[in-house]
Structure formats: C-alpha cells, structure tokens
Amino acid sequence: MRSRILVRGGSAVAALTLCTSALVLVGNQASAAAGCSVDYQTNQWDTGFTANVTVNNLGDAISNGWTLEWDFSGNQQITNHWNSTITQSGRHVTAKNPDWAKGLATGGSHSLGFQASYSGTNDKPTSFKLNGTACTGGPVQTTTSTSTSTTTTSTSTTTTTTTQDPGNPDGHVANPYVGAAGYLNPDYVAQVDALATSTGGTLGTAMRKVAQNSTAVWMDRIGAITAGRGLRGHLDEALRQQAAAGRPVVFQVVVYDLPNRDCAALASNGELQVSQNGLARYKAEYVDPIAAILGDPKYRDLRIVAIIEPDSLPNLITNAAKPKCAEAKSSGAYVQGVQYALNKLSAIPNVYNYLDIAHSGWLGWDSNLVPAVQLYTDVVRGTTKGFTSVDGFVSNTANYTPVDEPNLPDPTQTVGGQPLKSAKFYQWNPYFDEADFGAELHRRFVAAGFPSSIGMLIDTSRNGWGGANRPTGATGSTVDEYVNSGRIDRRLHRGNWCNQTGAGIGARPQAAPRPNFDAYVWIKPPGESDGIATKTDGPNEEGKQHDPMCDPAFRGDEQANGGNLTGAMPGAPHAGVWFPAQFKSLVENAYPAL
Ligand code: BGC
Q1: What pTM was computed for the model?
Q2: Distance between CA 21 and CA 247 in Å, rounded?
Q3: Is domain 181-589 annotated with CATH 3.20.20.40?
Q4: Which of 175, 297, 458, 590 could form a disulfide with 504 if both were Cys (CB 3.0 to 4.6 A apart)?
C-alpha cells in the first residue's frame, strides 16, 4: 500500500516536545527568516513501512547543519535509516544532516529515509520542526539570540546513529533506490527534448516530461564502453548530478553482450559468438573493462545498479531447442558469463546486481518457473560471494507486461464455470501481471536460500496501456469474452515483444513501490526500437538483424505467439535506434497520463 501526505504544519505544533535542549533568550537579538515544509511518503505493509521524508527549506539558507524533528503518533520504531543520522527516543525522532549535506539553500531540499516497524495504526506525524522552527509551509520571522543562553539536557535514550545500514560497513545499502535521485542520461534527454520541441503543443509538453525520468544506459557492445560519452563520461555526469542533487544518484547500467546474445531471436543478436571464442572475449574485452571503470574509487559514492544480461538465462529454460540457445547452454557460455560478471561486479561495494528474470508471460507456468528458480539458484550459488552477489531480480526488461491487471485481479475467478487463467490469452498461466509474478518469485527465491532482503524491480517504461482503448472493467459470459474485455494488456498475444502497437509509458520510476520490490525502473528507454520492421540482407556491424516478429504483416508461429499477427509498428529501425513514431505513440498511451 502506498500513501502520501504533504505536511504543512501548524495545527499540532504543541504536540511536539523538544527534549534535546532549550534555549533561553537574553540580550542581542537578531531577525532571521525561517520556514519549511515536509513531504512525508510511506510504503506500508502489515507490520512495517519505509518512509521518504523530504524537507524543503523555505527560509534563510542554512550552512552549518540542520536537524529535523517529529513525533510519531503510535509505536513506530525505526530500525534502519539512510541519508541522515536518526535518533529515536520514545515517540520523538531527531534526524540530523549527514556530513555531506550540511547546507540547505533557500528553496533547497533534502530527502532522507527510514524503515520502521509498527503495530496497530500507522498515522503520519502531524508536525515537523527544522532547526526548531515548525514547518508551516512558509517563511516565518523568528528572533534569535547569540549572547547568553542556558541549556538543559534531556534524559533521552538514543537508538542507532549511523547513516548506513547496520551490518553493511562498506556502505552497500539495503535498497539503492530509496532516498536517491535517478541518473538522467543527457543524450537521451536531448533526443526527447528535440522531438518535443519540433512536435510542440500539448503533445510536445507531455513528451518533455518523459525526459525527467531516469533511464538505463545500455552497454550493448564492447564499443559502447568508450563510444560517444562512454561509460566514464556517463559516470562523471552522474557525479555532477549527485553533487547538484545533494543526495545519492542511482546510475543504471545494462550488461548485455553475452556470446550468442538473444539466441532465440534475431533482432538483438550481438557481436560475440560462442564458436568464435566469445566467452573469453566477453570476459576480457567486455566485463573486465566495465568492472575496472565501475570500480574506480572516484565513483564510489554513486549507487550503480547493474542489470545483468536480459533474456539470457530464460532462453536456456524455454528455448534450448533453438540452435544458438542449445550452443549457449551446452557450452556453459551463458551460465559462466553471468557468473563471471557477477563475480567481478559484486566485488565493488557500490554496485548492486539485479539478474534479469524475463516476465510473467514468459516464465509464469510452473513448468518454466520451477526449473528457472532452480537454474538461477544454482548460477548464483556458484559465484564467489554466493547468494550475496545479487541484490535482486528485474522483470519485464524491455517488455510490455503490465504491473497490474486491475480488472482481472484473481486468475482463479470463474466465469461460465472456468477459471480466468484458462482463457486463450493466458493459456493457464496463473500470473497475469508483474506484481503477482515478482511477489511469487521473491517467495520462491527466499525458499530456495536467497536472503529475504533481495528486492524485485519491474521495468515499467512501456507497460502502461493507457489511452482510449484501456478497459475500465470486464464483462462477458465466457472466460475469453471476460478476459478480452477486461485486460489492459492489449497485445494480440503475450508472446509479442517487438514495438507493440498501442503500448504506453507505464508507472514512473519509483523506489520501494510495494513490499519486496526495490523499485519500478525504466530500463528500456522509451522510443528506442526493439528491432527493424523490414527484411535486411544480413546483420549490421553490431550483429542486429531483422526478426519477423518485428514485421507487422507476419503471422507468428505456434510457439512464438500462437500464430497471431505480431502487433509490431511499421517503419521501425534496428534495435536500440531512436524511433520517433513509437515514442509519440508511447506518450499518447501513457498510463498514468503524462
Ligand atoms: C538493443 C540494444 C539497445 C537496447 C536499448 C536492445 O533491444 O539490442 O542495442 O541498447 O535495446 O534500447
């Protein structure tokens, strides 16, 4: 459950009991404007919650440290916190600035976060104080004295005092997204802004909003490490953004260059081949240089999220009959490549590894899910750091499966005597959406031995399914009628994956959106193609080629998409290339609307 309130104090200031010190004012008095507002957001479950607290300074600039105080209304007990030093005494909480954020400019803000347990109700605090001044939402004139003061000391007991997770002396936090800003890739922003400008009007304004959201940077070939801005250039820019934001920046990088890449399709085939020494090259020419850059101490205050090899291990589960996948499997190239990447990257304390785990429409059946959990468990257990080499899993990377199917919440619900999951569209797959799929994966991974601290991510960049065709309810007397009228996933088949017509931008990137989920993220930058629509003579210099699933006129095959049309947009360029028509359509069909 997610809730959000904006506290603009005033009403219950009297409820605050300041217990650290009292200042008695005598003598030389000076005027200063003080003022603040606080935005307090929580993500809550039965017995606990995380909170993001943003304090906005509306008064004079603060240069030498600050303290934010509030009282809980119940038995909330903070267990973990970040981006401030928190002490709790009974209901009273004092959050002090971290060393790296002593200043708060006029109009500036700082976000801090914590995790807490509670029982009963979890009402929000009703008032806050910044450096002793109630946060009433506007500047107030206060009088202070610098000459004579007497101080009384309270008998408060304090709890934790560090700004890191307890037990993580290297600074590796439980959830890298909490309390952090997302990296804005200037190259992507420029592309979006240019299209927004040439489009103009309401649509142009909506387009521009996309650029305010963090997208991942794909290392989709060896050359990408140095081409253009290059990985170092992005990290330097992330450092700059971090300094400007005054809080940690999450930089998301996609590790995507295994030999025989995209082995069951053609659109995103890569440069390395198993048969041509690809695994050794992957290690030496790709993973090693990336790890060397990410491990540069200069970048150690960034939070670097590595998305590990989309679609690779899932292809070993379901597509081992295809020759390139069979080779990737029998040679051990995928498994060893992923383990090598995890070993190198997990040695860097500020890197957070998330393994790609396909999506519910791919692995949802137990016949796929059981062996998948087994394979992932074996792969991760076989790394140097074992289960701690990963921080979690990411689903729906570059796919279109919704987070929720709001009109079809229960796959076992019956219509005409049949369960909804028996409908043609779901083919007895019991997971209709990524929220249910991710929650179940978390449960199974923990049962298999992973620590319960692992977190799930969902790529929500293109799974919004808004616009005029979004159903608001379901009706019908057969399961097929009911499902087809109610599903927001408007694809012709869940196996369709290339440049889907009618898809929209989904949930905005967001930290800790539900229990066991670390974030909603945008891994696929909206508007970058999934694959070229028309036939090409052969692979381009990066290995990309035409896959019939990207041809709007192609009727797929039984295994790929039940023999339906592909639903792909016409006119698409190669995978990864900017595709303005798709971007426009994604913006028009965004949900929530932009
Ligand atoms: C492509 C990559 C590209 C990525 C992000 C993938 O489908 O193969 O080259 O970087 O999408 O757009």
Answers
A1: 0.75
A2: 29
A3: yes
A4: 590
